[in-house]
Write a structure and sequence with these properties.
25 strands, 2% helix, 6-blade_b-propeller_TolB-like
């Protein structure tokens, strides 16, 4: 386990921190507290942080342009104006199923947005993974229990996703021009030992940086599924990483206090904090999502 220099970006504890992303044009990091319906906005240069109440559970966003974001929420995709926070429903997603909510999501280099849903109580097989492509949502993979680790190789030819409940990370061949599958998912690795596969992001070398929920660490895997590094995180339930800062060499990591009783939280005093790890990574900027 590597102990890299680590600082606290936010000590406002998230019930379920998730969905971090970074806008290189404004040096701004964004992430969510899913359970509390909050969106965090951090100006990394100044250290200032704003928290926006969304009025609904939401889990991820994609940048559309300098003025707008596409928010992945429990009942659909919303266009959000950055200036005033106004949100407009673009299209529903499982809005007729109150038993599910959104979870992990990430934008493919083509601008296609992959989005995962799951049962609010993590019911087996209640979720799915969808693609938002050319203004329409289509289901890619059904019967997912806890969708996580959605990320893409630098060339866009491979997509990854995990079902945390099955402890499996899958790789699927993609059309790089569309971000849509051109083959069936295959098992890349099976997680064993402490913790579970949570959020992931791919770096410029195609390595997969995975937050290991319940194990206080980030694991780095090769495109062949070999574990290369493990970095310590000062909270047990690390949930998702994102590359941030100049050169995209730092790692922002969200965490959660979900399902912790008073004794567990006392033993894990930084549960739910958001961290910055000096990871010496070769990160990649997140692509913008395309509406059409």
């Amino acid at each position: 386990m590597e102990q890299v220099p680590t600082s606290v970006l936010s000590d406002d504890p998230c019930h379920l921190g998730e969905g971090p992303t970074y806008d290189v044009t404004t040096d701004t990091a964004w992430w969510f507290d899913i359970r509390e319906g909050r969106l965090f906005e951090a100006q990394l240069g100044s250290g200032s942080i704003r928290v926006h109440a969304l009025g609904r559970m939401a889990s991820a966003l994609g940048r559309i342009d300098a003025e707008r974001q596409l928010i992945v929420a429990e009942d659909g995709l919303y266009i959000r104006k950055i200036a005033d926070g106004a949100m407009r429903l673009l299209c529903p997603l499982e809005a007729d199923n109150p038993a599910t909510r959104s979870n992990d999501a990430r934008v493919h280099p083509s601008g296609t947005f992959w989005i995962g849903t799951m049962g609010r109580k993590a019911e087996a097989g209640a979720g799915a993974i969808y693609a938002f492509h050319h203004g329409e949502i289509s289901m890619l993979f059904p019967r997912i229990s806890i969708p996580n680790s959605i990320c893409f190789s630098p060339d866009g030819a491979t997509g990854y996703f995990a079902d945390t409940a099955r402890a499996v990370l899958y790789a699927v061949p993609l059309n790089p021009a569309t971000g849509l599958p051109r083959g069936e998912p295959e098992v890349l690795l099976r997680h064993t030992g402490v913790g579970g596969l949570d959020g992931s992001v791919c770096d410029a070398d195609g390595q997969i940086w995975n937050a290991c929920w319940g194990a206080s660490r980030i694991d780095v895997y090769s495109p062949q599924g070999e574990r290369l590094r493990s970095l310590s995180v000062p909270a047990k339930q690390a949930s998702c990483p994102a590359f941030v800062g100049p050169g995209l060499s730092r790692l922002l990591v969200t965490s959660a206090w979900q399902d912790m009783d008073a004794a567990a939280r006392a033993a894990d005093p930084q549960a739910g904090y958001t961290f910055l790890l000096e990871a010496t990574a070769r990160g990649r900027a997140e692509p913008d999502v395309k509406l059409a």
